[in-house]
Q: What sequence folds into this?
């Protein structure tokens, strides 16, 4: 486990994992040690696995808060520690599919065909790159028209939920549904289909603006469609330790959401931004980077939730 640096304001510490240090204090040595720590599954105690598959929707109608980045890197971290994870890409931009190195050009069977054509989910799920235990249901640009095409369809809010119920999740530990930056029909389908909501919130001005609208939508879904839906996890992203604002926002989020907020936060990281262009998560692209180490720690906390403790 990495060392942690913390900034405490009041009773709400902000914990930022640091890149593990090596006795040979050189950049190469530090990166090598971090890579061993992240990749060496056999060298560390396995993380707990849930007793049944956890279906988690990653949602926030604000764009650029780290939804896709969180979905991809949490999934990769959990898979590297023995979990079996499916990422359902529900964003027409298909960024999660790109980061997981899964084809998603026009004509490829995708989530669009599942929602609009009732195609079985099992027919479109593909292995994600070369990482064992990680799978992706890709999105294509066709998905952009799905909300319009589904308007006249009966029970259009239940399309994804029905597809997941028909899919054999007994071989999976987690399903992450990556949502578009909106509260339209695609996100509504994701909320109806999931048991848990994972909410990424950036440590920037107006971080909580608009979140209440998502919470209201989630409550409507809970009352009308999905009684078990709840906000189980909040992840602070894009933390810049040089600013007082970042700590203030973190304090506000912790005060609002309490124990649902993960202790680990995700710092700003160039490597996190670069990784998708190589068809990789940052976990495999640069496992020694601050972003990779932070996402591994956040994934460990998610895994500990399965054991009833963090």
A:
């Amino acid at each position: 486990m990495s060392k942690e640096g913390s900034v405490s304001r009041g009773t709400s510490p902000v914990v930022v994992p640091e890149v593990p240090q090596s006795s040979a204090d050189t950049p190469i040595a530090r990166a090598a040690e971090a890579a061993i720590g992240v990749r060496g599954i056999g060298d560390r105690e396995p993380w707990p696995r849930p007793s049944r598959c956890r279906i988690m929707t990653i949602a926030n109608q604000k764009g650029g808060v780290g939804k896709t980045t969180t979905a991809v890197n949490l999934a990769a971290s959990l898979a590297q520690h023995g979990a079996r994870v499916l990422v359902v890409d529900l964003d027409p931009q298909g960024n999660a599919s790109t980061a997981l190195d899964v084809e998603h050009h026009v004509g490829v069977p995708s989530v669009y065909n599942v929602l609009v054509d009732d195609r079985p989910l099992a027919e479109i799920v593909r292995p994600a790159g070369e990482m064992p235990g990680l799978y992706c249901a890709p999105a294509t640009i066709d998905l952009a028209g799905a909300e319009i095409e589904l308007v006249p369809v009966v029970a259009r809010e239940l399309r994804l939920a029905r597809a997941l119920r028909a899919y054999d999740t007994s071989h999976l530990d987690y399903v992450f549904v990556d949502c578009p930056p909106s509260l339209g029909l695609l996100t509504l389908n994701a909320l109806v289909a999931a048991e848990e909501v994972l909410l990424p919130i950036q440590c920037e001005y107006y971080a909580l603006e608009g979140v209440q609208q998502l919470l209201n939508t989630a409550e409507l879904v809970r009352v009308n469609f999905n009684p078990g839906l709840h906000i189980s996890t909040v992840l602070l992203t894009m933390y810049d330790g040089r600013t007082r604002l970042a700590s203030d926002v973190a304090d506000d989020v912790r005060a609002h959401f309490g124990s649902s907020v993960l202790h680990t936060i995700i710092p700003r990281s160039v490597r996190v931004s670069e990784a998708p262009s190589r068809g990789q998560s940052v976990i495999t692209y640069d496992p020694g980077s601050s972003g990779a180490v932070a996402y591994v720690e956040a994934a460990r906390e998610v895994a500990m939730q399965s054991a009833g403790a963090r």
Summary: The chain has a mean pLDDT of 86. The first helix runs from residue 27 to 39. The domain at 4-19+26-38+49-306 is CATH 3.40.50.300 (Rossmann fold).
